[in-house]
Structure to design on (948 residues):
C-alpha cells in the first residue's frame, strides 16, 4: 500500500529537528529529554556509553578525541574519526545515522517512521547527497527523499505565510544559523521551486555575535577595572585560570544578545574573583554599541548575498522577498541592515528555527512510499506456522530481569539488570519521564548496575529501552519502572492522624482546622505556614494569638482533636503593637520520634518565638478551651432543638445526656486560673474532646443521610437562585463551584459537623443570591417600607432612603435601588443571632 | 500572563548576589517565603550547586571547566532546575545552567 511519507528532517550542522505533516498542519516534535525541539548534532563516545545531543555537546571541546560535531561538513569524504574510547573508527555517515535515530525517538505518537525527507545544503554534491541517503538507511528508514534546504525554507514560508504571495519570480533565502551561513537564490514558476545559485560560509554564525560582545565590551571592562595585563589572551587559554569565568561570561553575552532583541540596553552584572580579589562588575551593553560591533559580521553575510545577486545579474527589484531562516535572524540589527543595505522586503513569517524541518514535512506530505509493515506481518505469520508445524520450542533470544526498590528515601536508587541469552552487542537506555535524566546508550552485560537519581517526594517514572547492535530500538523489551521517593517505605514511620492548626473563621465567629501534615505522611516532616493576624493586638495588653497544633481528624471540629502543641503570644510579649493583617510565619518540624518543634515569627515586630513539644506532653490554652466549650454547648443545644423539632425522642435523649455530660465540667473550667499546676485542665480537655467526638455520632447514619440529602436539595435550589439572580452572578458561581469541588471529600468524611458547615455555606450563598435578585429586593422593600418607626435605628435616615429607593424603582435604576435597599437593612433593628458575640478565636486568619 | 519561571530565575539571581555580599542571613526568611509561594503552586526549585555532575544529568546544561574526569562537581549555578507538578506528574520546566569542574 502506498502511504504519504509525512516526516521531514532538518539534519543540520549544529542542530537537527524532526517534523510531521498531520493532514492539516506541520507538527515539530520535541525531545522527550528536556522538551526542546532541537537536537544538537553532536555524538559523544563516553567511556561506557554513547550520548547524542546537548549532553554530548558539553564534552565537545573537552574531549575532542571521543566527541564529534560538525561532521555534516565531512559527509561524502572518506574521512574517519578515530574514537579512543571504543578503539575504532567512525564515519560521518555513522555519526549522522546516530543523530537520525535519536530524532526518531522524538516521535511520541507511537508510530515508527519508515520513510522521511532529509534536507541537505544547496551546495551538497552527489557524493555528499549519497552519503546522506546512506545515513538515512543506516538509521532504519526504508525510503528516503532528499530536499535542498533553501527549497524547504521556501516551502515553509509559502505554505505558512498569511499574505497572498505572488509565487512566480526570484526569492533570496538568508539562512543564518548558530555556526553557519548560507545564501540561496530560489526561482519559482507556476508549480516548481528551484535553487538557482548559492553562496555560504561554514564558519560564520550567531556565536560570532556572542564572541564580539565578550571581546569588544566585557573584556575591556574587566581589564580596565582589574588592571590585569593580557587578560584577553589569558581568558582564551585552554584550561587556563580564567576558564570558569570565560564560560560564565559566554552565557551572559548570549543572554544579553537575546535581551537586546526587545530592549535598547541591558546590564551584565556579575561578581568574580580574579587573582584573589573580588570584583563586582556592572557592564552596560547598548543596542548602539552592538550595532557597531555586529556590523562587520552582518556585512560579511550581506556581501555573500549580494554576490549571489551579482552572479545572476539581478538587482533588488528582481527579487520578491528575502526569506529569513536560522536563529541568528532574530537579532534586530541583522534585519535592519538587511533591509537597509538591500532595499528588498524581508519575510520572517515562518519560525526561523523550525522552518527547514517544517518545509521538509510539507514536501513529505506529497511524497509516497510502499509500506513494508504488511509484508512483515505476512512473514511473521509464515514463521509462526513453520514453528508450529515442526512442534519446535525456540528459546527466547534475550531475557532481561530488573531489580530495584519501588520506594526510596535516598536521592538515588540503584537498578540491577540481569541479562541471559543473546545480549552481546545490544544496548540499553533509561530516561526519566520528566526529561531530567538520560543514561544514553550503554552496552548490555550479564549483570549491570545503574544509579537512578530521584526527584524528592514524587513518583519517578523511568523508561528502560533495549537497542540492537545498529542502535535500533527493540520495542518489545521496553518497560516502565516506577520509584516513589520520600513516601511510604517499609521501615518508614507514617503519621497515625492528621496534624492541623486551629485558625479563625471570622465570618462564622468560630474556628476551624487547617491541615499541616496529612495522616500517613512520612516522618520527619517540615513545613512553614504563612498566615496573617486576624485582630490587632496592642503592646502590653492581655490579648494574644494562640498557635494551637492539634492531632485528629482534619475534617472534624477543633474540639474533637487533641492539642499537641500550643504557643500563646500576648501583648506583653510584643515589642510593638501587632496590627491586624500583618504576617505571621509558623514553622513546624516533626521529628522521626514525633517531637514537635514550632517556631513563630511575627514579621511586623521582627520577633521570633520558639518552642519544642513532645507529643506525650499535652499543651493547653485555657482561653481556647473555654471558647471550645461554649461553641460545643451552643451546637449541642441546636442539635437538641432539631431532634425535638423532628420528634426524634431517642436521639434527643442522647443529645441531652451529652449536653449534661459537657456541662459537668463547666464550673471547674471557668474557675480554673491560668498557671494552674494541677491535671484538671487536661481532664476537662479530655472530656470536651470525647463529648465533641460523640456529638458527631449523634443521629447515626440516618442523620448523615439526612444531612447529605439536605445538602443536595439546598445545592439545587441555590443553583436555581444564582441563575435567576440579576447581579454578581459570576462571583457567586465561583463560590458555588468551590463548595461543589470539595463535595466528594466532605461526603466521604461522614462527619456531621463538616457536612453541616457545608450546608450552612450553601444557605449563606442562597441568601446572597436572593439579595442579588431584583424581584426579591422589591418584595423585601415593599415589606420594609410599611414597617413602624420602632423597626429602624434611625427613622429619619430610613425615611429618606425609602424615598430615594422609590425614585430609583420608578425609573428602573435597579443597581442604585439595590444599594439603597442594602443601606436600609443596616438601619433596621434586627436581633443579633450571633451565639458568641465576644469571639476571640486564635488570632490567626 | 506572567511567566513564573522568569520570576524564579530573578529571585534565584538576587539570592546569589545577596549571598556574595555576606548579608544572606538578613534575607533568608524573605527568600524562603518567596520560593514557598511558587512551591505551593506546584513548582519544585532545585539548586544543584555542590552536587555530582555526570553526562546523565539532562536536568542541567553544563559548561565543563578544567580537565574532565569521572568525579565532576557542580561549582556554580546560574539558573536553577525547575520542575512542575501537574496532575500527579512531574515535568522539567527549566534545565539548570551550571558550571561543572573536576574534583
Amino acid at each position: 500500500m502506498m502511504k504519504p511519507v509525512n516526516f521531514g528532517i532538518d539534519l543540520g550542522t549544529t542542530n537537527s529537528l524532526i517534523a510531521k505533516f498531520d493532514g492539516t498542519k506541520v507538527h515539530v516534535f520535541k525531545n522527550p529529554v528536556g522538551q526542546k525541539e532541537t537536537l544538537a548534532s553532536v555524538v559523544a563516545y563516553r567511556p561506557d556509553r554513547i550520548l547524542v545531543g546537548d549532553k554530548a555537546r558539553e564534552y565537545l571541546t573537552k574531549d575532542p578525541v571521543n566527541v564529534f560535531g560538525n561532521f555534516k561538513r565531512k559527509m561524502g569524504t572518506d574521512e574517519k574519526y578515530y574514537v579512543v574510547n571504543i578503539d575504532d573508527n567512525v564515519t560521518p555517515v555513522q555519526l549522522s545515522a546516530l543523530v537520525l535515530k535519536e530524532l526518531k525517538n522524538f516521535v511520541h505518537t507511537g508510530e515508527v517512521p519508515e520513510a522521511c525527507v532529509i534536507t541537505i545544503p544547496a551546495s551538497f554534491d552527489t557524493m555528499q547527497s549519497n552519503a546522506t541517503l546512506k545515513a538515512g538507511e543506516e538509521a532504519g528508514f526504508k525510503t528516503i527523499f532528499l530536499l535542498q534546504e533553501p527549497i524547504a525554507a521556501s516551502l515553509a514560508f509559502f505554505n505558512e505565510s498569511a499574505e497572498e504571495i505572488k509565487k512566480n519570480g526570484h526569492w533570496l533565502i538568508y539562512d543564518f544559523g548558530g555556526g553557519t551561513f548560507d545564501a540561496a537564490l530560489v526561482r519559482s514558476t507556476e508549480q516548481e521551486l528551484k535553487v538557482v545559485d548559492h553562496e555560504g560560509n561554514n564558519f560564520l554564525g550567531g556565536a560570532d555575535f556572542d564572541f564580539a560582545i565578550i571581546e569588544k565590551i566585557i573584556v575591556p571592562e574587566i581589564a580596565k577595572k582589574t588592571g590585569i595585563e593580557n587578560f584577553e589572551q589569558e581568558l582564551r587559554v585552554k584550561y587556563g585560570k580564567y576558564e570558569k569565568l570565560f564560560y560564565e561570561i559566554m552565557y551572559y553575552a548570549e543572554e544579553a544578545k537575546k535581551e537586546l532583541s526587545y530592549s535598547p540596553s541591558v546590564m551584565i552584572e556579575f561578581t568574580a574573583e580574579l587573582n584573589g580579589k573580588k570584583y563586582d562588575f556592572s557592564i552596560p551593553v547598548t543596542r548602539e554599541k552592538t550595532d557597531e560591533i555586529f556590523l562587520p559580521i552582518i556585512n560579511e553575510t550581506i556581501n555573500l548575498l549580494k554576490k549571489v545577486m551579482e552572479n545572476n545579474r539581478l538587482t533588488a527589484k528582481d527579487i520578491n522577498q528575502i526569506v529569513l531562516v536560522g536563529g541568528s535572524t532574530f537579532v534586530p540589527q541583522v534585519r535592519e541592515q538587511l533591509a537597509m543595505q538591500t532595499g528588498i522586503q524581508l519575510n520572517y513569517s515562518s519560525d526561523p528555527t523550525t522552518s527547514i524541518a517544517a518545509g521538509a514535512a510539507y514536501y513529505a506530505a506529497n511524497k509516497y512510499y510502499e509500506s513494508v509493515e504488511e509484508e512483515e506481518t505476512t512473514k511473521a505469520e509464515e514463521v509462526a506456522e513453520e514453528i508450529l508445524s515442526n512442534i519446535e520450542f525456540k528459546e527466547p533470544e534475550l531475557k532481561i530481569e530488573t531489580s530495584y526498590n519501588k520506594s526510596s528515601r535516598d536521592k538515588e536508587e540503584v537498578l540491577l539488570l540481569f541479562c541471559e541469552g543473546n545480549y552481546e552487542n545490544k544496548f540499553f537506555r533509561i530516561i526519566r519521564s520528566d526529561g531530567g535524566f538520560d543514561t544514553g546508550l550503554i552496552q548490555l552485560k550479564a549483570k549491570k548496575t545503574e544509579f537512578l537519581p530521584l526527584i524528592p517526594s514524587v513518583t519517578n517514572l523511568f523508561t528502560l529501552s533495549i537497542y540492537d547492535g545498529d542502535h535500533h530500538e527493540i520495542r518489545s523489551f521496553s518497560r516502565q519502572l516506577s520509584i516513589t521517593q520520600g513516601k511510604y517505605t517499609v521501615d518508614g514511620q507514617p503519621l497515625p492522624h492528621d496534624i492541623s492548626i486551629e485558625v479563625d473563621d471570622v465570618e462564622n465567629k468560630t474556628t476551624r482546622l487547617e491541615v499541616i501534615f496529612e495522616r500517613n505522611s512520612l516522618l520527619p516532616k517540615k513545613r512553614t505556614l504563612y498566615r496573617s493576624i486576624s485582630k490587632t493586638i496592642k503592646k502590653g495588653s492581655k490579648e494574644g494569638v494562640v498557635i494551637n497544633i492539634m492531632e485528629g481528624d482534619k475534617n472534624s471540629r477543633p474540639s474533637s482533636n487533641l492539642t499537641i502543641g500550643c504557643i500563646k503570644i500576648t501583648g506583653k510579649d510584643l515589642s510593638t503593637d501587632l496590627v491586624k493583617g500583618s504576617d505571621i510565619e509558623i514553622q513546624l518540624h516533626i521529628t522521626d520520634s514525633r517531637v514537635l518543634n514550632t517556631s513563630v515569627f511575627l514579621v511586623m515586630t521582627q520577633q521570633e518565638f520558639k518552642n519544642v513539644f513532645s507529643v506525650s506532653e499535652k499543651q493547653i490554652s485555657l482561653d481556647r478551651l473555654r471558647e471550645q466549650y461554649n461553641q460545643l454547648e451552643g451546637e449541642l443545644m441546636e442539635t437538641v432543638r432539631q431532634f425535638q423539632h423532628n420528634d426524634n425522642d431517642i436521639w434527643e435523649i442522647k443529645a441531652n445526656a451529652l449536653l449534661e455530660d459537657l456541662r459537668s465540667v463547666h464550673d471547674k473550667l471557668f474557675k480554673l486560673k491560668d498557671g494552674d499546676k494541677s491535671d484538671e485542665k487536661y481532664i476537662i480537655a479530655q472530656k470536651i474532646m470525647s463529648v465533641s467526638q460523640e456529638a458527631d455520632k449523634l443521629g447515626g447514619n440516618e442523620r448523615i443521610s439526612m444531612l447529605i440529602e439536605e445538602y443536595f436539595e439546598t445545592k439545587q435550589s441555590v443553583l436555581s437562585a444564582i441563575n435567576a439572580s440579576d447581579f454578581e452572578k459570576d462571583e457567586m458561581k465561583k463560590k458555588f463551584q468551590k463548595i461543589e469541588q470539595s463535595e466528594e471529600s466532605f461526603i466521604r468524611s461522614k462527619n456531621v459537623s463538616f457536612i453541616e458547615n457545608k450546608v450552612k455555606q450553601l444557605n449563606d450563598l442562597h441568601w446572597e443570591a436572593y439579595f442579588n435578585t431584583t424581584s426579591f429586593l422589591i418584595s423585601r422593600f415593599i415589606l420594609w417600607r410599611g414597617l413602624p418607626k420602632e423597626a429602624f435605628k434611625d427613622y429619619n435616615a430610613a425615611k429618606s432612603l425609602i424615598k430615594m429607593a422609590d425614585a430609583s424603582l420608578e425609573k428602573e435604576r435597579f443597581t442604585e435601588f439595590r444599594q439603597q435597599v442594602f443601606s436600609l437593612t443596616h438601619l433596621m433593628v434586627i436581633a443579633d443571632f450571633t451565639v458568641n458575640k465576644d469571639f476571640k478565636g486564635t488570632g490567626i486568619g | 500572563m506572567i511567566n513564573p519561571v522568569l520570576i524564579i530565575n530573578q529571585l534565584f539571581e538576587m539570592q546569589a548576589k545577596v549571598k556574595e555580599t555576606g548579608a544572606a542571613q538578613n534575607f533568608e526568611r524573605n527568600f524562603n517565603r518567596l520560593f514557598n509561594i511558587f512551591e505551593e503552586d506546584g513548582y519544585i526549585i532545585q539548586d544543584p550547586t555542590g552536587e555530582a555532575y555526570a553526562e546523565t544529568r539532562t536536568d542541567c546544561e553544563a559548561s565543563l571547566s578544567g580537565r574532565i574526569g569521572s568525579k565532576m562537581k557542580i561549582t556554580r549555578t546560574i539558573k536553577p532546575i525547575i520542575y512542575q507538578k501537574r496532575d500527579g506528574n512531574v515535568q522539567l520546566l527549566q534545565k539548570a545552567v551550571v558550571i561543572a569542574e573536576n574534583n
